[in-house]
Amino acid sequence: MQETAISVADEAVGGAMPQTDGQRWLVLNPTSGSADHTDHVRSLAEERDYHVEETQGEGHATDLATIAADEGVNLLAVAGGDGTLHEVVAGLAAADALDRTTVAVVPVGTENIFATNIGIRDAEHAFDVVETGARRRVDVGMADGEPFVMSSIAGLVADASVSTSSELKERFGSLAFLANGVQEAASFDGLHIDLTAISNGEEVTWSGDALCALVGNSRRFVEEGGQADLEDGLLEVVVIEHMPAGSIVAEAFIQRVLGRTTDNVFHTQAAQLEISSTDGDPIGFSLDGESRYHDRLAIHTEPLALRVCVGPEYTVSPPP
Ligand SMILES: Nc1ncnc2c1ncn2[C@@H]1O[C@H](COP(=O)(O)OP(=O)(O)OP(=O)(O)O)[C@@H](O)[C@H]1O
């Protein structure tokens, strides 16, 4: 594999951008989160002269983002959760409009992980940040041509992430979904995979039976988890080896994962990688929470490809 080069022009300007807007649109998913935000968010937007479009169902946010791009909209707000944001970024990428559109994330979903990562607290804050906050260019992950902003994860956690209990969330914080996966590992056959990544110009590989393979753009999975550097052109790559585990073993294991990497955990940072199935079964991936199946998945970063409005607490490179 050839390493993807980070454009010097992007590096030179850093992530910061001037604030000049023409048309403003809001793509609003009325069903995200507790689904009681529509009137409030619509009025926040209309007070500020946004044109508002509501989504009707799956994939509609992608179509609306493409239409907005074709209309020349250069400030596109997205009210929803991470799934709606994922769809909007896909629509902008399809219209080849990532470079001329700034995205404002209005968090009204269940988890809102990406909004938290870029320092956006709530809907009102999101609209304020458009007026007064900074704008940055951040990296986008690409999985066989499909953009993702948070993560592409395979294995037990892909399904388990939805049902993570609040007790686990309290105990393990942002890695609760991982703990959940490990707890269910006893009945899981494992992912039979080969992974090849380019890390610091060197090819590194992992082969075997994995509990999960985690690729984060805005997400980190080892130590305390949390936000990864969104402007370094790199993905966080973690593979946890599959092992039969009852809940007590699993808990001890997770405690170790939270603290430091172990022999059972492969961790690297890469601009480019490939994950392929070695047993002929397609691998189930969760791309920002959307379910996809691939026999082989090539993933890379598009450095600084997405323009976003960030809150004052956004830190480019948060300490682990
Ligand atoms: N009008 C609609 N009716 C039903 N579903 C819709 C509608 N509009 C969009 N959707 C669906 O909503 C999903 C996205 O939900 P979203 O991720 O924004 O909310 P969430 O799941 O509550 O939040 P999070 O992903 O942050 O946990 C998409 O998969 C899309 O299919």
UniProtKB/TrEMBL annotation:
Pfam families: DAGK_cat, YegS_C. Gene3D superfamilies: 2.60.200.40, Probable inorganic polyphosphate/atp-NAD kinase, domain 1. Its EC number is 2.7.1.-. It comes from Halomarina rubra. The keyword Chaperone does not apply. One of its GO terms (biological process) is phospholipid biosynthetic process. Signal peptide: none annotated. InterPro entries: ATP-NAD_kinase_N, Diacylglycerol/lipid_kinase, Diacylglycerol_kinase_cat_dom, Lipid_Phosphate_FormReg, NAD/diacylglycerol_kinase_sf, YegS/DAGK_C. Its cofactor is Mg(2+). The keyword S-adenosyl-L-methionine does not apply. Keywords: ATP-binding, Kinase, Lipid biosynthesis, Lipid metabolism, Magnesium, Metal-binding, Nucleotide-binding, Phospholipid biosynthesis, Phospholipid metabolism, Transferase. Residues 20-147 form the DAGKc domain. This is Diacylglycerol/lipid kinase family protein. It comes from the Archaea. It is an enzyme of class 2 (transferase). Transmembrane segments: none annotated. GO terms for molecular function: ATP binding; kinase activity; metal ion binding.
